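Q: Convert this sequence to C-alpha cells.
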Amino acid sequence: MTVSSSRKNIVWVILCLALIIWGLTDVRKRAHFDPVLAAENPQLVSKHRTDLTVFTEAGAAFFDGRDSYEVSNPRGWMYLYPPLFAILMAPLHHLQPQWQGVVWYFFSLAMVWGCYRETIRLLNHAGLAEVTSGKETNKTFRWIQVAALAAILFPILDCLQRGQVGILILYLLLLGLRLVLVGASWWGVVVGGAMLSLAIVFKIIPALPVAFLFLLLMVSRVQKAENVANSFRLLGAGTGILVGLFLFFFAVPAMFIGWQSNTAHLKRWSQVIGQQAVEASVEGHFSNPQSPRNQSLSNALYLTGTQLAYWAPGIVEPFPWKYTEMDGRFMASPIVRKTVLVVRVILCLLLIPLAWKRSGSTSDRLAAFGLACVAMLIVSPVARIHYFMMELPAVLFVSLWVWKHRGPQKAILCAGIPAVLSVMHYMFVTFPQILGFLRLGTFFLGTLGVGTSLWYVVMTWKLTTFSSEKAAPDTSNKHLPPDI
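A:
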C-alpha cells in the first residue's frame, strides 16, 4: 500500500466517523420530539426540525383511517405527495421520532453513495471519466468536479440534516438515466424507465426531465430510424415508464390499503395538491411558499422584485421583509403573476429545440437531460433550496460538454456559476443580517432562483445553436476522449 492510498484511507475513515457522529447527535436532536414536554412548553415544538415525521405520520394515517392529507407532524407540516411514499415510510412510525430521523439519515447516506456511483458510471459510458492525459487537462477536470460538489454540497447536507427525500429522488433519476441510455438489455432499459416513474410518483416534479428524456429518445428515433438501438431504447423506456406509473400510482399502494381506498386518496391528493401546479399557496398545504428557501423562478422574482418595487419612486410598496404579507404588493398583482407564468412556460419550451439538436451522442443527451433537471426547478411553483442538488447532472455534464466544444476556461466558468450562486444564497439565508448591513433588503434573496434561470437560458441557447461543422477545432482539448 502506497503512502498516497494510506492517506486516502485515513481521510475516508475520518469522514465516515464524522458522518456517524453527526447523525447520532445533531440529526437525532433535530428529529427529537416529546409531546408531553411540548404540551408544557410549546416553544419546544420549534426545535423539531425534520420533514421525516411528515411522511411517517401520513403513512400511519393511511392505515388507521385518518385523512393523510390533513394530519401533520408536530410542526404543523402536511404531506404533499401521492400515497406510495408515505405508505412505504409507515413502518418507521413505530419508532420514536429521533430514531426515525437516524434511520432515514443513514439510508440517505447510502443514497449519496449511490448517486456518486451512478455519476461515475455515466461518466464512464460517456467516455468522460479517464481524463488524465496532460497536466492542464487533469486540472480542468478537477476544477469542474470541485464546482459541481460546491453547487450541491449545502443542499445535500440540508437534506441529510432535515430528513428530506431529495437525495433518493436524485438517485432514482441517475439510476434510471443510466439504464435507459446505456442499458445492455431490453429489460434493463425497462427497469430504468420504471425507476424514472418511481421518482415521479415520489415527488411529481421529476415528470419534466423524465418526459424530456423520452422526447430525446423519440427525436433520436426520427433522426436515425435505421439505428435499431434507438427503437430498442425508445420502446423499452416507454414501456418501463408506463408500467411503472401504473404500478406505483395504483397497483402497489392498492396491495397495502385496497384499490378503492387508494383511488380515494389519489382523488383527495389531486384536489388538495394537484391544483397547485401553477402557483403554490398555504391553502394547498405548502408551508410558507414565499419563504427565501423557495427558489422557484416565480418566488425568486417575487422576493427580488418586492425590493425593487420598494425602491422605485411612485410605487407604494409594503416593507419588503414582510414578504409573507402579499396584499398591496406590485409583484403579487395579477399582471405580474401572469407575466411570470408566461416566462416559465417559455423557459420550459426551450427544451423542445434542445432535444432536436442534442439527441445524438451520449454526452449530448446527458448535458441536455441535466438542463431539463434545472428547468424542473425553475418552472415548479415550489423549489426549496435543498432541491438544487438536482443541478448535479447539469453542472457536471453541461460543463464537460462546454469543455469539449468551447474550451477549458469557459467550462470552468460554466461549472463555477451555479456553485457561486448556491454558496451565496445559503450565506444570505443563514446570515440575513448581511443584507441589512448592506441595505440591500430582499434584493439578493432571489439570487439562486433568478441566477440559475439566467444560467439555464444561456446554456440551453449555447447547446441548441452550436454547430460542430462551423466550429473551429479546439486544440486545448486534444487530451479529451474522442467519444465526447
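The chain has a mean pLDDT of 87.
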